[in-house]
Amino acid sequence: MKAKLLLALAVTFPLSASAVDMTWSGFGTLGFAQSNQPYPYLRFIDDGGTFKSDSLLGAQLDLKFDQHWGAAIQAKLAPSDSSDTEWNAFLSWAFVSWRPVDDILVRVGKLRVPLMLNTENSDVGATYDFARLPVEVYSMAPTTDFVGFSVSKSWLGADMEWTLDGYYGEAKNYTRYYGREARDGVSAPGSWFEKLDIKSGGLVLTARSLDNMFRAGIHEAYASQPGGTIADIPYVSIAPGLGIYDLASGRSVEHLRIPFQNVGTSILLPGDVRLTSEYARVKVNSASSGLSRWGAYFAISRQFGVWNPYVYYAKTKSTDASLSLYQSVNGNVNPMLPTAVNNYQKTSADIISPYDQWTAAVGTSYRVTPRSLIKSEWSQTHTGEVSSFVDAPSGGDSANKRINVFSLSYSFSF
Amino acid sequence: MKRNIIFLLLLFGGASTFAADDRLVVIAHAALSKTDLSTLQRVYTGRIVSINEQAAVPVHLLPGDPLRQQFLEVILGQSEEQYTGYWLVRKYVGKGAPPVEFATTDALIKYVTSTPGAIGYLPASKVPMGANIIFKP
Known about the structure:
Oligomer: heterodimer
Number of strands of chain A: 20
Helix content of chain A: under 10%
CATH class of chain B: Alpha Beta
CATH class of chain A: Mainly Beta
Number of helices of chain B: 5
Strand content of chain B: 15-25%
Number of strands of chain B: 7
Shape of chain A: globular
Number of domains of chain B: 1
Structural class of chain A: mainly beta
Order of helices and strands of chain B: HEHEEEHHEHEE
Strand order of the largest sheet of chain B: 5-4-6-1-7
Strand order of the largest sheet of chain A: 1-2-3-4-5-6-7-8-9-14-15-16-17-18-19-20
Distance between the termini of chain B: 40 Å
Structural class of chain B: alpha/beta
Largest sheet of chain A: 16 strands, antiparallel, barrel
CATH topology of chain A: Porin
Helix content of chain B: 40-55%
Distance between the termini of chain A: 29 Å
Shape of chain B: globular
Order of helices and strands of chain A: HEEEEEHEEEEEEEEEEEEHHEEE
Radius of gyration of chain B: 17 Å
Number of domains of chain A: 1
Strand content of chain A: over 45%
Number of helices of chain A: 4
CATH superfamily of chain B: Periplasmic binding protein-like II
């Protein structure tokens, strides 16, 4: 697919190099994060420390054929989204853009969905001050990249630029699961990744000025897998008063409908205080019903010269129904049953993928140059009933955890 | 006495001439018509790519150049950090690349006078004869 995209870009514009303005740029983050807990949080962060949580390296090539036609290709090297041990090179963008008039922009190719305020530029740490974008919100989208098209229409006001983005496309996306007792076909703790085919579309309205930004979006995705997707985890009675929640007996559906809505704002208040807040909610009617959740954060920052200290509070919570189901499945352990059956219940509970946690963080960025930042942050995450951001230790669960995370990173662009 | 007066006239006359010559003016390729502040702001922030249906290709001097700093403050009302940050985000959300930059005013003049749609800025003292001045702050 990537090769086809590049080939399509190449044949669409068989222009001589001299007719094209080419601009290379690069970006990256070298980030270290360490927690006070032995079990991993956000895949990689534990008390041993890691560079994998936030580090990446990327490059972008912007091509300008004339005033109306252009193209961009962006690639990055980062920890794989389908393995916890590998690094992969990704083609983040590869699109052709056409601007027939000033206020319309059409892009076709591999694009990033304009979801949250910083989704499109989330890989470029030099463009925002948070050491890590609040995971309670930024992890919610069913996909952030797609191959398809987007159309943007802009209206220019005196101070504000209004943009309505509409998009539609397809993506192959991986959903990570972690089994604390067993994983996909293996009687040992570990992670595995389910590949999903996703078709998504949406409308996003953005208002942007030099100091302020507002955004609201409605999106709808359809996810499918070859052979169907399991939509629930029914309780199956195996003896009077005894039963199991059996994933294998779940109803199979051809595709899942995943509606997603979000709003966000970043405004400059008197006294140079910046208030940034975002809210999103998503619904997933599958066996992983815990993915149906809301998330929000509220951040305050103020620039003092090259320093930009901030605090934020973020929270996410799955629906009551999915948290209740998780408790039922997780608690359905009977000493009379074989260990494998009890572990099956634990794994089924993990597959529900529920979330209930909040994070408070305090940090600062230090602008070394207009294109580079050093960031430092301390955060404390409290889990409630459960959090799938935590790889729960075997024999335990992720409830009522307190996780302190220290992060230090250097982000640059050139 | 006369020599002193002439010296003083030269001194102050020269100073006022320099002050006048250092004023920033915006020049463009011959085909572009005169424009206003709001349009220039939109061109240099990538929000429009044409003026009166003529392609507009803004160019800059390099960051750190005092004239660029003056342009950003007077025309765009931004600091270098704000402007760079604005384009950094715009570029990485796929909405275009920032204006091309030139190391010297001579290189900028050469590009603007030879490239249809090009727009740049100069101190008044360096505006070449016959140049198309499209805006004076």
